[in-house]
Amino acid sequence: MAENGKNCDQRRVAMNKEHHNGNFTDPSSVNEKKRREREERQNIVLWRQPLITLQYFSLEILVILKEWTSKVHI
Fold first, then answer.
1. Under DSSP, is residue 17 helix (H, G, I), strand (E, B) or coil?
2. What is the spatial distance between Cα 68 and Cα 74, in angstroms, rounded to a whole number?
3. What is the pLDDT along the chain (74 residues), one digit of tens a residue?
4. Would you say the pTM of this structure is higher than 0.90?
5. 3-state SS assignment for residue 18
6. Three-state DSSP class for 1?
């Protein structure tokens, strides 16, 4: 029993800090992913595609109203 615990501790010590849930993550790839996501968020603006934005807004309002009316009737 003690040997099993010892082996488990050794595995934990040997495990890399970037190792999570069975996946190895390279710090440089994480930084690259964050940079790309930040650039994508900066590119999302209302005035580039106002009609599509208005369409999504209208659809979202309809969904919200439908949910609201179903809750009011109950």
1. coil
2. 10
3. 555 555 555 555 555 444 556 656 677 888 999 999 888 878 777 777 889 889 999 999 999 999 999 988 76
4. no
5. coil
6. coil
